[in-house]
Amino acid sequence: MKKRYLLIPLALFIVLAVFLAIGLNRDPREVPSPLVGKPAPAFNLPQLQKEGSFSPKDMTGKVWLLNVWASWCVSCRVEHPVLVDLAKRKIAPIVGLDYKDQRPEALNWLARHGDPYDLSAVDADGRVGIDYGVYGVPETYVIDKAGVIRFKQIGPVTPEVLDKKILPLIAELQK
Amino acid sequence: MSAKHFFLALSVALAATAAPAKDAAPLAEDPAVEARLVHISEELRCLVCQNESLAGSRADLALDLKREIRTMIKAGKSDQEIRDFLVNRYGDFVLYRPPVKPTTWLLWGGPFVLMAGGVIALIAFLRRRKPAEANLTPEEQRRADALIKGDS
């Protein structure tokens, strides 16, 4: 009779423990992007290396990656070899968004570490970054043939993320 | 030093300390815009330093976003439109006051459910508890009465 009451605090404790376990194991940096499933915001930015501009519309009909990077970004340096390797395999075009960077430094950075990008667009004041919900560099978007964002990677693209998430998704979208 | 001289020196000293304050640039051209900016951004989370509000943050992105909000205020956008602008880009996470919707029902209602559970458990517990009885024998009762009387 009395023992039943002892179970109430125990049940409450278990419920609380489960919530805390879920909460503590989540990465607070992983903010789910409301942009996944929505069309990639339009923009028109000058290119880094060539004359002319770039707009996401130019990529219609292709599955492509938009990678936000900057020469001042330390994590981009970590991610860079993965992108260079991906570019060599010619799986999908990679477009760089050079975020709040200085042009000479950006060019220097690409010359030194290799250039995996089909082209880089220059987002000098970060305005386009705001439209894409960028809050930390690097970030990478997978955009489908219709121009819809299908995946967002916050932080460096690791070989693991590439193999497990990005490559299968690209293969699926290219069908 | 006469009192006159003292006060003269004092006022010169005070004037000297006050001078830089006069020279400081005004905070913003339009205090009304600034007030609204603070009002809106205090309810928004800085994405970079997640435990800070946008109003208090000096992070680069926070400054950019505040500039963006300032532009929208000047363009005559409502508070709700500005909040929607940010939610469309960064999700509900930017709001310190999450909206009430099915995925957040537990968040909003949880504490009240827990409290209701506690109150129900307490009532049940109190009802079941046997009332305390005065289990004194007549002899003990007499002694107790005697003690009380003797005291007063």
Automatic annotation (TrEMBL), chain A:
Pfam families: Redoxin (PF08534). Keywords: Cytochrome c-type biogenesis, Disulfide bond, Redox-active center. Residues 34-175 form the Thioredoxin domain. It is found in: Cell envelope. The keyword Disulfide bond applies. The keyword Disulfide bond applies. It comes from the Bacteria. InterPro entries: Periplasmic_diS_OxRdtase_DsbE, Redoxin, Thioredoxin-like_sf, Thioredoxin_CS, Thioredoxin_domain, Thioredoxin_ResA/DsbE_sf. Belongs to the thioredoxin family. DsbE subfamily. This is DsbE family thiol:disulfide interchange protein. It comes from Piscinibacter gummiphilus.
TrEMBL record, chain B:
Residues 12-147 form the CcmH/CycL/Ccl2/NrfF N-terminal domain. InterPro entries: C-type_cytochrome_biogenesis, CcmH/CycL/Ccl2/NrfF_N, CcmH/CycL/NrfF/Ccl2_sf. The chain crosses the membrane at residues 105-126. Pfam families: CcmH. It comes from the Bacteria. CDD domains: CcmH_N. Residues 1-21 form the signal peptide. Keywords: Cytochrome c-type biogenesis, Heme, Iron, Membrane, Metal-binding, Signal, Transmembrane, Transmembrane helix. Belongs to the CcmH/CycL/Ccl2/NrfF family. This is Cytochrome c-type biogenesis protein.
